[in-house]
Protein backbone atom coordinates (compact mmCIF):
# COMPACT_ATOMS: atom_id res chain seq x y z
CA UNK A 1 0.00 0.00 0.00
CA UNK A 2 1.11 3.45 -1.01
CA UNK A 3 1.89 6.23 1.43
CA UNK A 4 1.60 8.93 -1.20
CA UNK A 5 -1.00 11.63 -0.41
CA UNK A 6 -2.61 13.00 -3.53
CA UNK A 7 -4.98 15.91 -2.75
CA UNK A 8 -8.67 15.40 -3.41
CA UNK A 9 -8.66 18.23 -5.93
CA UNK A 10 -5.56 18.10 -8.12
CA UNK A 11 -4.83 21.23 -10.17
CA UNK A 12 -4.78 20.80 -13.95
CA UNK A 13 -1.54 19.48 -15.46
CA UNK A 14 -1.00 22.84 -17.16
CA UNK A 15 -1.30 24.57 -13.79
CA UNK A 16 1.15 22.14 -12.16
CA UNK A 17 3.64 22.80 -14.95
CA UNK A 18 3.25 26.53 -14.65
CA UNK A 19 3.84 26.38 -10.90
CA UNK A 20 6.91 24.20 -11.36
CA UNK A 21 8.26 26.56 -13.98
CA UNK A 22 7.66 29.42 -11.57
CA UNK A 23 9.53 27.54 -8.83
CA UNK A 24 12.62 27.44 -11.08
CA UNK A 25 12.61 31.07 -12.23
CA UNK A 26 13.28 34.30 -10.40
CA UNK A 27 15.48 34.61 -7.34
CA UNK A 28 16.49 31.18 -6.01
CA UNK A 29 14.47 28.03 -6.32
CA UNK A 30 11.21 27.47 -4.51
CA UNK A 31 11.85 23.98 -3.12
CA UNK A 32 8.68 23.99 -1.03
CA UNK A 33 6.58 24.49 -4.15
CA UNK A 34 8.35 21.63 -5.89
CA UNK A 35 7.67 19.31 -2.95
CA UNK A 36 4.06 20.41 -2.69
CA UNK A 37 3.50 19.46 -6.33
CA UNK A 38 5.74 16.50 -7.20
CA UNK A 39 5.61 15.01 -3.69
CA UNK A 40 1.85 14.69 -4.03
CA UNK A 41 1.27 13.31 -7.50
CA UNK A 42 1.11 9.64 -8.52
CA UNK A 43 3.15 8.02 -11.29
CA UNK A 44 0.56 8.62 -14.01
CA UNK A 45 0.19 12.26 -13.00
CA UNK A 46 3.96 12.83 -12.89
CA UNK A 47 4.33 11.27 -16.31
CA UNK A 48 1.74 13.64 -17.72
CA UNK A 49 3.41 16.60 -16.00
CA UNK A 50 6.75 15.68 -17.60
CA UNK A 51 5.13 15.41 -20.99
CA UNK A 52 3.21 18.68 -20.82
CA UNK A 53 6.19 20.48 -19.28
CA UNK A 54 8.40 19.46 -22.20
CA UNK A 55 5.74 20.54 -24.71
CA UNK A 56 5.18 23.87 -22.99
CA UNK A 57 8.71 24.94 -22.09
CA UNK A 58 10.76 22.95 -24.60
CA UNK A 59 12.85 21.39 -21.85
CA UNK A 60 12.72 18.04 -20.08
CA UNK A 61 11.47 18.60 -16.54
CA UNK A 62 14.25 16.33 -15.26
CA UNK A 63 16.86 18.59 -16.87
CA UNK A 64 15.30 21.64 -15.25
CA UNK A 65 15.26 19.91 -11.86
CA UNK A 66 18.84 18.81 -12.36
CA UNK A 67 19.89 22.42 -12.96
CA UNK A 68 18.02 23.82 -9.98
CA UNK A 69 18.53 21.26 -7.24
CA UNK A 70 21.55 19.72 -5.52
CA UNK A 71 22.68 16.80 -3.42
CA UNK A 72 20.30 14.42 -1.69
CA UNK A 73 17.26 16.57 -2.36
CA UNK A 74 18.05 16.58 -6.07
CA UNK A 75 18.51 12.84 -6.13
CA UNK A 76 15.23 12.01 -4.45
CA UNK A 77 13.25 14.45 -6.58
CA UNK A 78 14.82 13.11 -9.78
CA UNK A 79 14.38 9.45 -8.85
CA UNK A 80 10.84 10.06 -7.71
CA UNK A 81 9.87 11.99 -10.82
CA UNK A 82 11.01 9.19 -13.12
CA UNK A 83 8.50 6.63 -14.27
CA UNK A 84 8.93 3.46 -12.09
CA UNK A 85 10.32 1.36 -14.93
CA UNK A 86 12.69 4.13 -16.06
CA UNK A 87 13.76 4.55 -12.45
CA UNK A 88 14.55 0.86 -12.13
CA UNK A 89 16.47 0.99 -15.39
CA UNK A 90 18.45 3.98 -14.11
CA UNK A 91 19.19 2.37 -10.73
CA UNK A 92 20.24 -0.96 -12.19
CA UNK A 93 22.47 0.72 -14.73
CA UNK A 94 24.15 2.72 -11.99
CA UNK A 95 24.55 -0.47 -9.96
CA UNK A 96 26.27 -2.31 -12.83
CA UNK A 97 28.71 0.55 -13.22
CA UNK A 98 29.41 0.87 -9.51
CA UNK A 99 29.20 -2.82 -8.84
CA UNK A 100 30.93 -4.24 -5.79
CA UNK A 101 30.18 -7.49 -4.01
CA UNK A 102 28.35 -5.58 -1.28
CA UNK A 103 26.08 -3.74 -3.72
CA UNK A 104 22.66 -5.36 -3.43
CA UNK A 105 20.69 -3.04 -5.72
CA UNK A 106 20.58 -5.43 -8.68
CA UNK A 107 19.34 -8.27 -6.51
CA UNK A 108 16.85 -5.99 -4.76
CA UNK A 109 15.29 -4.76 -7.99
CA UNK A 110 15.28 -8.17 -9.63
CA UNK A 111 13.62 -9.88 -6.67
CA UNK A 112 11.21 -7.34 -5.15
CA UNK A 113 9.54 -6.23 -8.39
CA UNK A 114 6.70 -8.26 -9.89
CA UNK A 115 7.69 -10.32 -12.96
CA UNK A 116 5.89 -7.82 -15.18
CA UNK A 117 7.54 -4.80 -13.51
CA UNK A 118 10.99 -6.32 -13.99
CA UNK A 119 10.17 -6.84 -17.65
CA UNK A 120 9.11 -3.20 -18.02
CA UNK A 121 12.37 -2.14 -16.38
CA UNK A 122 14.29 -4.25 -18.92
CA UNK A 123 12.34 -2.59 -21.73
CA UNK A 124 13.10 0.86 -20.33
CA UNK A 125 16.76 -0.20 -20.09
CA UNK A 126 16.82 -0.99 -23.83
CA UNK A 127 15.27 2.35 -24.64
CA UNK A 128 17.63 4.36 -22.48
CA UNK A 129 20.95 2.56 -22.72
CA UNK A 130 20.69 0.76 -26.09
CA UNK A 131 21.82 -2.38 -24.38
CA UNK A 132 20.10 -5.08 -22.34
CA UNK A 133 20.17 -5.14 -18.56
CA UNK A 134 21.44 -8.71 -18.45
CA UNK A 135 24.23 -7.90 -20.87
CA UNK A 136 25.53 -5.13 -18.60
CA UNK A 137 25.12 -7.22 -15.47
CA UNK A 138 26.96 -10.14 -17.07
CA UNK A 139 29.72 -7.82 -18.26
CA UNK A 140 30.31 -6.04 -14.97
CA UNK A 141 29.97 -8.89 -12.48
CA UNK A 142 32.11 -11.98 -11.95
CA UNK A 143 32.26 -15.45 -10.49
CA UNK A 144 29.49 -16.56 -8.16
CA UNK A 145 27.88 -13.13 -8.14
CA UNK A 146 27.49 -13.24 -11.90
CA UNK A 147 26.20 -16.79 -11.68
CA UNK A 148 23.43 -15.58 -9.38
CA UNK A 149 22.72 -12.07 -10.66
CA UNK A 150 22.41 -12.76 -14.39
CA UNK A 151 19.56 -15.26 -14.02
CA UNK A 152 17.93 -13.08 -11.35
CA UNK A 153 17.74 -10.03 -13.61
CA UNK A 154 16.80 -12.19 -16.64
CA UNK A 155 13.97 -14.01 -14.90
CA UNK A 156 10.39 -13.72 -15.98
CA UNK A 157 8.87 -15.81 -13.24
CA UNK A 158 5.41 -17.27 -13.34
CA UNK A 159 3.33 -14.81 -11.34
CA UNK A 160 0.38 -16.98 -10.31
CA UNK A 161 -0.40 -18.70 -7.00
CA UNK A 162 -0.32 -22.30 -8.25
CA UNK A 163 2.07 -24.33 -6.14
CA UNK A 164 3.40 -27.86 -6.60
CA UNK A 165 3.81 -29.28 -3.10
CA UNK A 166 5.63 -32.43 -4.15
CA UNK A 167 8.19 -30.27 -5.91
CA UNK A 168 8.40 -27.96 -2.88
CA UNK A 169 9.29 -30.95 -0.71
CA UNK A 170 11.92 -32.34 -3.05
CA UNK A 171 13.49 -28.93 -3.65
CA UNK A 172 13.51 -28.12 0.08
CA UNK A 173 15.49 -31.33 0.56
CA UNK A 174 17.81 -30.42 -2.29
CA UNK A 175 18.44 -26.95 -0.83
CA UNK A 176 19.17 -28.44 2.59
CA UNK A 177 21.64 -30.92 1.11
CA UNK A 178 23.52 -28.23 -0.76
CA UNK A 179 23.59 -25.84 2.18
CA UNK A 180 24.75 -28.60 4.54
CA UNK A 181 27.68 -29.19 2.19
CA UNK A 182 28.30 -25.41 2.01
CA UNK A 183 27.75 -25.64 -1.75
CA UNK A 184 26.31 -22.12 -1.79
CA UNK A 185 27.05 -21.54 -5.46
CA UNK A 186 25.51 -24.84 -6.51
CA UNK A 187 23.73 -24.85 -9.90
CA UNK A 188 20.49 -26.21 -8.50
CA UNK A 189 20.38 -23.85 -5.55
CA UNK A 190 20.73 -20.91 -7.91
CA UNK A 191 18.29 -22.44 -10.41
CA UNK A 192 15.59 -22.70 -7.74
CA UNK A 193 16.04 -19.14 -6.47
CA UNK A 194 16.33 -17.62 -9.93
CA UNK A 195 13.55 -19.41 -11.80
CA UNK A 196 10.76 -20.66 -9.53
CA UNK A 197 7.72 -18.48 -8.91
CA UNK A 198 7.60 -16.55 -5.65
CA UNK A 199 4.65 -18.64 -4.48
CA UNK A 200 6.57 -21.85 -5.22
CA UNK A 201 9.70 -20.61 -3.44
CA UNK A 202 7.62 -19.63 -0.45
CA UNK A 203 6.14 -23.14 -0.33
CA UNK A 204 9.61 -24.67 -0.65
CA UNK A 205 10.97 -22.57 2.20
CA UNK A 206 8.01 -23.49 4.40
CA UNK A 207 8.79 -27.14 3.72
CA UNK A 208 12.41 -26.43 4.54
CA UNK A 209 11.44 -25.04 7.93
CA UNK A 210 9.00 -27.86 8.66
CA UNK A 211 11.44 -30.54 7.67
CA UNK A 212 14.72 -29.16 9.00
CA UNK A 213 13.59 -26.95 11.88
CA UNK A 214 15.38 -23.78 10.83
CA UNK A 215 14.69 -20.82 8.61
CA UNK A 216 16.86 -21.26 5.54
CA UNK A 217 18.43 -17.84 6.19
CA UNK A 218 19.64 -19.08 9.60
CA UNK A 219 21.50 -21.83 7.78
CA UNK A 220 22.94 -19.32 5.33
CA UNK A 221 24.70 -17.42 8.11
CA UNK A 222 27.73 -19.71 8.43
CA UNK A 223 30.04 -16.75 7.88
CA UNK A 224 28.34 -13.40 8.60
CA UNK A 225 31.05 -11.54 6.71
CA UNK A 226 30.73 -13.54 3.49
CA UNK A 227 29.20 -11.18 0.90
CA UNK A 228 27.89 -13.99 -1.29
CA UNK A 229 26.01 -15.51 1.62
CA UNK A 230 24.65 -12.06 2.40
CA UNK A 231 23.30 -11.63 -1.11
CA UNK A 232 21.75 -15.10 -0.99
CA UNK A 233 19.96 -14.21 2.24
CA UNK A 234 18.89 -10.91 0.66
CA UNK A 235 17.56 -12.74 -2.40
CA UNK A 236 15.42 -14.98 -0.26
CA UNK A 237 14.14 -12.08 1.82
CA UNK A 238 13.33 -9.98 -1.25
CA UNK A 239 11.46 -12.89 -2.83
CA UNK A 240 9.35 -13.92 0.14
CA UNK A 241 9.11 -10.93 2.49
CA UNK A 242 10.20 -7.75 0.68
CA UNK A 243 8.71 -5.49 3.38
CA UNK A 244 11.11 -7.02 5.95
CA UNK A 245 14.02 -6.58 3.58
CA UNK A 246 13.14 -2.92 3.05
CA UNK A 247 12.60 -2.31 6.77
CA UNK A 248 16.10 -3.58 7.41
CA UNK A 249 17.55 -1.57 4.53
CA UNK A 250 16.08 1.61 6.03
CA UNK A 251 17.14 0.62 9.56
CA UNK A 252 20.72 0.06 8.47
CA UNK A 253 20.70 3.31 6.49
CA UNK A 254 19.58 5.28 9.55
CA UNK A 255 21.25 3.46 12.44
CA UNK A 256 24.83 4.12 11.55
CA UNK A 257 27.48 6.76 11.87
CA UNK A 258 26.29 9.18 9.16
CA UNK A 259 23.10 8.27 7.36
CA UNK A 260 23.35 6.18 4.15
CA UNK A 261 21.31 8.61 2.06
CA UNK A 262 21.75 6.50 -1.07
CA UNK A 263 19.87 3.56 0.40
CA UNK A 264 17.28 5.68 2.20
CA UNK A 265 16.49 7.66 -0.94
CA UNK A 266 16.28 4.55 -3.10
CA UNK A 267 13.93 2.69 -0.80
CA UNK A 268 11.63 5.66 -0.24
CA UNK A 269 11.56 6.69 -3.91
CA UNK A 270 10.89 3.16 -5.15
CA UNK A 271 8.49 1.98 -2.43
CA UNK A 272 6.40 5.06 -1.58
CA UNK A 273 3.83 4.10 -4.19
CA UNK A 274 4.15 0.35 -3.56
CA UNK A 275 4.46 -1.10 -0.07
CA UNK A 276 5.59 1.83 2.08
CA UNK A 277 2.64 1.54 4.44
CA UNK A 278 3.60 -2.03 5.36
CA UNK A 279 7.28 -1.08 5.55
CA UNK A 280 6.41 1.73 7.98
CA UNK A 281 4.47 -0.70 10.15
CA UNK A 282 7.36 -3.16 10.07
CA UNK A 283 9.73 -0.36 11.02
CA UNK A 284 7.69 0.73 13.99
CA UNK A 285 7.27 -2.87 15.17
CA UNK A 286 10.98 -3.60 14.90
CA UNK A 287 12.37 -0.29 16.24
CA UNK A 288 9.61 0.98 18.54
CA UNK A 289 9.89 4.36 16.82
CA UNK A 290 7.69 5.62 13.98
CA UNK A 291 9.62 5.84 10.72
CA UNK A 292 8.79 9.52 10.17
CA UNK A 293 10.28 10.40 13.55
CA UNK A 294 13.43 8.40 12.81
CA UNK A 295 13.80 10.08 9.42
CA UNK A 296 13.15 13.55 10.85
CA UNK A 297 15.88 12.92 13.44
CA UNK A 298 18.41 11.80 10.85
CA UNK A 299 17.87 14.16 7.93
CA UNK A 300 17.39 17.87 7.40
CA UNK A 301 16.03 20.56 5.12
CA UNK A 302 14.23 19.96 1.85
CA UNK A 303 15.55 16.40 1.67
CA UNK A 304 13.83 15.64 4.95
CA UNK A 305 10.63 17.36 3.82
CA UNK A 306 10.50 15.39 0.59
CA UNK A 307 11.10 12.06 2.37
CA UNK A 308 8.36 12.85 4.89
CA UNK A 309 5.96 13.88 2.14
CA UNK A 310 6.56 10.59 0.33
CA UNK A 311 6.13 8.39 3.38
CA UNK A 312 2.83 10.16 3.99
CA UNK A 313 3.40 12.29 7.03
CA UNK A 314 0.38 14.49 7.51
CA UNK A 315 1.31 18.07 6.93
CA UNK A 316 0.78 20.30 9.95
CA UNK B 1 9.08 -12.65 -46.15
CA UNK B 2 6.05 -14.83 -45.82
CA UNK B 3 5.09 -17.52 -48.34
CA UNK B 4 1.51 -17.65 -47.17
CA UNK B 5 -1.06 -16.95 -49.91
CA UNK B 6 -4.15 -15.23 -48.57
CA UNK B 7 -6.84 -14.81 -51.27
CA UNK B 8 -7.71 -11.28 -52.33
CA UNK B 9 -11.29 -11.77 -51.14
CA UNK B 10 -11.38 -13.63 -47.86
CA UNK B 11 -14.78 -15.02 -46.81
CA UNK B 12 -16.22 -13.70 -43.56
CA UNK B 13 -14.98 -15.35 -40.34
CA UNK B 14 -18.45 -16.78 -39.77
CA UNK B 15 -18.37 -18.34 -43.22
CA UNK B 16 -14.90 -19.82 -42.61
CA UNK B 17 -16.12 -21.31 -39.34
CA UNK B 18 -19.21 -22.76 -40.96
CA UNK B 19 -17.12 -24.37 -43.70
CA UNK B 20 -14.68 -25.80 -41.17
CA UNK B 21 -17.56 -27.18 -39.12
CA UNK B 22 -18.94 -28.73 -42.29
CA UNK B 23 -15.56 -30.28 -43.04
CA UNK B 24 -15.73 -32.12 -39.71
CA UNK B 25 -19.30 -33.37 -39.91
CA UNK B 26 -20.93 -35.99 -42.10
CA UNK B 27 -19.12 -38.95 -43.61
CA UNK B 28 -15.35 -38.65 -43.17
CA UNK B 29 -13.42 -35.44 -42.90
CA UNK B 30 -12.97 -33.02 -45.75
CA UNK B 31 -9.22 -32.41 -45.46
CA UNK B 32 -9.07 -30.44 -48.71
CA UNK B 33 -11.56 -27.93 -47.33
CA UNK B 34 -9.53 -27.57 -44.13
CA UNK B 35 -6.36 -26.87 -46.13
CA UNK B 36 -8.12 -24.42 -48.42
CA UNK B 37 -9.22 -22.40 -45.41
CA UNK B 38 -6.56 -22.66 -42.69
CA UNK B 39 -3.68 -22.98 -45.16
CA UNK B 40 -4.59 -19.57 -46.56
CA UNK B 41 -5.27 -17.39 -43.53
CA UNK B 42 -2.74 -15.29 -41.63
CA UNK B 43 -2.16 -15.39 -37.87
CA UNK B 44 -4.67 -12.65 -37.07
CA UNK B 45 -7.33 -14.30 -39.24
CA UNK B 46 -6.73 -17.74 -37.71
CA UNK B 47 -6.97 -16.28 -34.24
CA UNK B 48 -10.34 -14.75 -35.08
CA UNK B 49 -11.53 -18.01 -36.63
CA UNK B 50 -10.62 -19.88 -33.44
CA UNK B 51 -12.46 -17.34 -31.35
CA UNK B 52 -15.64 -17.27 -33.45
CA UNK B 53 -15.59 -21.05 -33.85
CA UNK B 54 -15.55 -21.51 -30.08
CA UNK B 55 -18.38 -19.00 -29.64
CA UNK B 56 -20.49 -20.57 -32.38
CA UNK B 57 -19.98 -24.27 -31.77
CA UNK B 58 -18.99 -24.31 -28.10
CA UNK B 59 -15.79 -26.23 -28.87
CA UNK B 60 -12.18 -25.15 -29.31
CA UNK B 61 -11.27 -25.47 -32.98
CA UNK B 62 -8.03 -27.17 -31.96
CA UNK B 63 -9.99 -29.85 -30.11
CA UNK B 64 -12.18 -30.43 -33.16
CA UNK B 65 -9.11 -30.69 -35.41
CA UNK B 66 -7.48 -33.03 -32.93
CA UNK B 67 -10.50 -35.35 -33.07
CA UNK B 68 -10.74 -35.35 -36.86
CA UNK B 69 -7.12 -35.47 -38.05
CA UNK B 70 -4.23 -37.85 -37.53
CA UNK B 71 -0.44 -38.13 -37.76
CA UNK B 72 1.72 -35.61 -39.58
CA UNK B 73 -1.19 -33.83 -41.16
CA UNK B 74 -2.78 -33.34 -37.75
CA UNK B 75 0.44 -32.01 -36.28
CA UNK B 76 1.06 -29.42 -38.96
CA UNK B 77 -2.54 -28.20 -38.94
CA UNK B 78 -2.54 -27.91 -35.15
CA UNK B 79 0.84 -26.17 -34.95
CA UNK B 80 -0.07 -23.86 -37.77
CA UNK B 81 -3.45 -22.93 -36.31
CA UNK B 82 -1.90 -21.91 -32.98
CA UNK B 83 -1.00 -18.29 -32.43
CA UNK B 84 2.81 -17.90 -33.01
CA UNK B 85 3.57 -17.23 -29.35
CA UNK B 86 1.36 -20.09 -28.17
CA UNK B 87 3.04 -22.32 -30.74
CA UNK B 88 6.48 -21.41 -29.46
CA UNK B 89 5.32 -22.06 -25.90
CA UNK B 90 3.98 -25.45 -26.96
CA UNK B 91 7.14 -26.41 -28.86
CA UNK B 92 9.51 -25.31 -26.11
CA UNK B 93 7.49 -27.15 -23.48
CA UNK B 94 7.59 -30.31 -25.57
CA UNK B 95 11.33 -29.83 -26.01
CA UNK B 96 11.95 -29.54 -22.26
CA UNK B 97 10.03 -32.74 -21.67
CA UNK B 98 11.75 -34.63 -24.48
CA UNK B 99 15.08 -33.00 -23.95
CA UNK B 100 18.21 -34.76 -25.18
CA UNK B 101 21.57 -33.23 -25.98
CA UNK B 102 20.80 -33.43 -29.71
CA UNK B 103 17.49 -31.59 -29.36
CA UNK B 104 18.03 -28.10 -30.73
CA UNK B 105 14.47 -26.78 -30.53
CA UNK B 106 15.02 -24.67 -27.40
CA UNK B 107 18.09 -23.03 -28.87
CA UNK B 108 16.36 -22.55 -32.23
CA UNK B 109 13.36 -20.78 -30.72
CA UNK B 110 15.42 -18.71 -28.29
CA UNK B 111 17.81 -17.48 -30.98
CA UNK B 112 15.76 -17.10 -34.18
CA UNK B 113 12.83 -15.19 -32.67
CA UNK B 114 13.03 -11.44 -32.17
CA UNK B 115 13.54 -10.36 -28.54
CA UNK B 116 9.89 -9.31 -28.37
CA UNK B 117 8.64 -12.56 -29.90
CA UNK B 118 10.62 -14.60 -27.38
CA UNK B 119 9.07 -12.54 -24.60
CA UNK B 120 5.56 -13.18 -25.96
CA UNK B 121 6.35 -16.89 -26.07
CA UNK B 122 7.40 -16.74 -22.41
CA UNK B 123 4.14 -14.98 -21.56
CA UNK B 124 2.15 -17.61 -23.44
CA UNK B 125 4.13 -20.26 -21.54
CA UNK B 126 3.02 -18.78 -18.20
CA UNK B 127 -0.58 -18.73 -19.35
CA UNK B 128 -0.59 -22.30 -20.61
CA UNK B 129 1.70 -24.17 -18.25
CA UNK B 130 1.51 -22.09 -15.05
CA UNK B 131 5.28 -22.14 -14.91
CA UNK B 132 8.03 -20.15 -16.56
CA UNK B 133 9.92 -21.36 -19.61
CA UNK B 134 13.29 -20.84 -17.96
CA UNK B 135 12.22 -22.78 -14.89
CA UNK B 136 11.33 -25.82 -16.99
CA UNK B 137 14.47 -25.52 -19.10
CA UNK B 138 16.65 -25.24 -15.98
CA UNK B 139 14.90 -28.21 -14.41
CA UNK B 140 15.15 -30.54 -17.39
CA UNK B 141 18.64 -29.77 -18.68
CA UNK B 142 22.05 -30.30 -17.14
CA UNK B 143 25.68 -29.33 -17.17
CA UNK B 144 26.99 -27.25 -20.05
CA UNK B 145 23.69 -27.45 -21.93
CA UNK B 146 21.88 -25.91 -18.99
CA UNK B 147 24.58 -23.29 -18.67
CA UNK B 148 23.93 -22.24 -22.27
CA UNK B 149 20.19 -22.83 -22.66
CA UNK B 150 18.89 -21.09 -19.54
CA UNK B 151 20.38 -17.69 -20.42
CA UNK B 152 19.41 -18.16 -24.08
CA UNK B 153 15.72 -18.66 -23.28
CA UNK B 154 15.81 -15.95 -20.57
CA UNK B 155 17.39 -13.33 -22.76
CA UNK B 156 15.67 -10.11 -23.69
CA UNK B 157 18.31 -8.77 -26.02
CA UNK B 158 18.55 -5.20 -27.14
CA UNK B 159 16.88 -5.19 -30.56
CA UNK B 160 18.41 -2.09 -32.14
CA UNK B 161 21.20 -1.70 -34.66
CA UNK B 162 23.63 0.27 -32.46
CA UNK B 163 26.98 -1.47 -32.40
CA UNK B 164 30.06 -0.86 -30.26
CA UNK B 165 33.04 -1.65 -32.48
CA UNK B 166 35.67 -1.42 -29.74
CA UNK B 167 33.70 -3.96 -27.77
CA UNK B 168 33.29 -6.14 -30.88
CA UNK B 169 37.07 -6.21 -31.27
CA UNK B 170 37.81 -7.04 -27.67
CA UNK B 171 35.13 -9.70 -27.50
CA UNK B 172 36.24 -11.27 -30.79
CA UNK B 173 39.67 -11.63 -29.23
CA UNK B 174 38.18 -13.08 -26.08
CA UNK B 175 36.16 -15.62 -28.06
CA UNK B 176 39.24 -16.62 -30.02
CA UNK B 177 41.28 -17.11 -26.86
CA UNK B 178 38.65 -19.31 -25.28
CA UNK B 179 38.08 -21.38 -28.41
CA UNK B 180 41.82 -21.83 -28.90
CA UNK B 181 41.97 -23.28 -25.40
CA UNK B 182 38.92 -25.43 -26.15
CA UNK B 183 37.15 -23.69 -23.27
CA UNK B 184 33.82 -24.07 -25.04
CA UNK B 185 31.75 -23.80 -21.86
CA UNK B 186 33.59 -20.69 -20.70
CA UNK B 187 31.50 -18.15 -18.77
CA UNK B 188 32.42 -15.26 -21.05
CA UNK B 189 31.85 -17.15 -24.26
CA UNK B 190 28.35 -18.04 -23.08
CA UNK B 191 27.77 -14.53 -21.72
CA UNK B 192 28.54 -13.00 -25.12
CA UNK B 193 26.29 -15.37 -27.07
CA UNK B 194 23.45 -15.21 -24.56
CA UNK B 195 23.28 -11.50 -23.81
CA UNK B 196 24.66 -9.32 -26.62
CA UNK B 197 22.30 -7.96 -29.26
CA UNK B 198 22.23 -9.76 -32.60
CA UNK B 199 23.76 -6.73 -34.32
CA UNK B 200 26.58 -6.64 -31.77
CA UNK B 201 27.25 -10.39 -32.12
CA UNK B 202 27.31 -10.02 -35.87
CA UNK B 203 29.90 -7.24 -35.57
CA UNK B 204 31.96 -9.34 -33.16
CA UNK B 205 31.94 -12.32 -35.52
CA UNK B 206 32.96 -10.13 -38.45
CA UNK B 207 35.88 -8.91 -36.36
CA UNK B 208 36.68 -12.51 -35.52
CA UNK B 209 36.87 -13.39 -39.19
CA UNK B 210 38.92 -10.32 -40.07
CA UNK B 211 41.35 -10.85 -37.25
CA UNK B 212 41.73 -14.62 -37.20
CA UNK B 213 40.95 -15.58 -40.79
CA UNK B 214 38.28 -18.17 -40.07
CA UNK B 215 34.57 -18.24 -39.52
CA UNK B 216 34.05 -18.90 -35.85
CA UNK B 217 31.95 -21.94 -36.70
CA UNK B 218 34.92 -23.48 -38.50
CA UNK B 219 36.85 -23.21 -35.26
CA UNK B 220 33.98 -24.77 -33.36
CA UNK B 221 34.19 -27.97 -35.39
CA UNK B 222 37.08 -29.59 -33.49
CA UNK B 223 34.98 -32.66 -32.87
CA UNK B 224 32.07 -32.97 -35.32
CA UNK B 225 30.33 -35.48 -33.05
CA UNK B 226 30.39 -33.30 -29.96
CA UNK B 227 26.75 -32.29 -29.32
CA UNK B 228 27.69 -29.24 -27.26
CA UNK B 229 29.85 -27.88 -30.07
CA UNK B 230 26.98 -28.56 -32.44
CA UNK B 231 24.56 -26.53 -30.34
CA UNK B 232 27.11 -23.69 -30.09
CA UNK B 233 27.41 -23.61 -33.87
CA UNK B 234 23.62 -23.73 -34.14
CA UNK B 235 23.33 -20.83 -31.68
CA UNK B 236 25.63 -18.69 -33.77
CA UNK B 237 23.86 -19.60 -36.98
CA UNK B 238 20.42 -18.91 -35.53
CA UNK B 239 21.58 -15.53 -34.22
CA UNK B 240 23.30 -14.23 -37.33
CA UNK B 241 21.87 -16.13 -40.31
CA UNK B 242 18.65 -17.91 -39.32
CA UNK B 243 17.66 -18.53 -42.95
CA UNK B 244 20.80 -20.66 -43.42
CA UNK B 245 20.09 -22.53 -40.23
CA UNK B 246 16.55 -23.28 -41.37
CA UNK B 247 17.67 -24.29 -44.87
CA UNK B 248 19.99 -26.84 -43.32
CA UNK B 249 17.32 -28.06 -40.90
CA UNK B 250 14.99 -28.73 -43.85
CA UNK B 251 17.80 -30.27 -45.91
CA UNK B 252 18.71 -32.68 -43.12
CA UNK B 253 15.04 -33.50 -42.55
CA UNK B 254 14.55 -34.41 -46.21
CA UNK B 255 17.91 -35.91 -47.22
CA UNK B 256 17.91 -38.93 -45.00
CA UNK B 257 16.55 -42.42 -44.83
CA UNK B 258 12.92 -41.67 -43.94
CA UNK B 259 11.94 -38.02 -43.69
CA UNK B 260 12.22 -36.28 -40.29
CA UNK B 261 8.65 -35.01 -40.32
CA UNK B 262 9.03 -33.47 -36.88
CA UNK B 263 11.68 -31.01 -38.03
CA UNK B 264 10.08 -30.36 -41.42
CA UNK B 265 6.72 -29.61 -39.85
CA UNK B 266 8.21 -27.37 -37.19
CA UNK B 267 10.25 -25.28 -39.62
CA UNK B 268 7.40 -24.87 -42.11
CA UNK B 269 4.76 -24.12 -39.47
CA UNK B 270 6.92 -21.58 -37.66
CA UNK B 271 8.56 -19.91 -40.66
CA UNK B 272 5.85 -19.81 -43.35
CA UNK B 273 4.71 -16.41 -42.13
CA UNK B 274 8.21 -15.19 -41.31
CA UNK B 275 11.18 -15.90 -43.56
CA UNK B 276 10.08 -18.82 -45.70
CA UNK B 277 10.67 -16.98 -48.96
CA UNK B 278 14.33 -16.47 -48.12
CA UNK B 279 14.63 -20.02 -46.80
CA UNK B 280 13.22 -21.32 -50.11
CA UNK B 281 15.76 -19.28 -52.06
CA UNK B 282 18.56 -20.57 -49.83
CA UNK B 283 17.33 -24.10 -50.35
CA UNK B 284 17.29 -23.83 -54.10
CA UNK B 285 20.75 -22.23 -54.12
CA UNK B 286 22.23 -24.92 -51.90
CA UNK B 287 20.49 -27.98 -53.38
CA UNK B 288 19.78 -26.97 -56.99
CA UNK B 289 16.22 -28.17 -56.52
CA UNK B 290 13.22 -26.01 -55.63
CA UNK B 291 11.97 -26.71 -52.12
CA UNK B 292 8.43 -27.51 -53.24
CA UNK B 293 9.71 -30.20 -55.59
CA UNK B 294 11.86 -31.70 -52.82
CA UNK B 295 8.93 -31.71 -50.41
CA UNK B 296 6.56 -33.18 -52.99
CA UNK B 297 9.06 -36.00 -53.60
CA UNK B 298 9.43 -36.81 -49.91
CA UNK B 299 5.92 -36.48 -48.53
CA UNK B 300 2.43 -37.58 -49.49
CA UNK B 301 -1.27 -36.94 -49.16
CA UNK B 302 -2.82 -34.15 -47.13
CA UNK B 303 0.40 -33.58 -45.22
CA UNK B 304 2.17 -32.84 -48.51
CA UNK B 305 -0.68 -30.60 -49.65
CA UNK B 306 -0.63 -28.58 -46.42
CA UNK B 307 3.17 -28.15 -46.55
CA UNK B 308 2.99 -26.99 -50.16
CA UNK B 309 0.16 -24.57 -49.38
CA UNK B 310 2.20 -23.03 -46.57
CA UNK B 311 5.38 -22.65 -48.60
CA UNK B 312 3.32 -20.85 -51.22
CA UNK B 313 3.14 -23.26 -54.13
CA UNK B 314 0.68 -21.84 -56.65
CA UNK B 315 -2.34 -24.04 -56.86
CA UNK B 316 -2.98 -25.51 -60.33
From TrEMBL, chains A, B:
PROSITE patterns (alphabetical): ANNEXIN_2
Pfam assignment, any one: Annexin
Residues noted as binding Ca(2+) 3 in the record, renumbered to the chain: 298
Entry binding sites for Ca(2+) 1: 24, 26, 28, 68, 254, 256, 258, 296, 299, 304
UniProt GO MF annotations: calcium-dependent phospholipid binding; metal ion binding
Calcium recorded as keyword: yes
Keywords: Annexin, Calcium, Calcium/phospholipid-binding, Metal-binding, Repeat
SUPFAM superfamilies: Annexin
Gene Ontology terms: biological process: response to stress
This protein's name: Annexin D1
UniProt source species: Abeliophyllum distichum
Taxonomy of the source species: Eukaryota, Viridiplantae, Streptophyta, Embryophyta, Tracheophyta
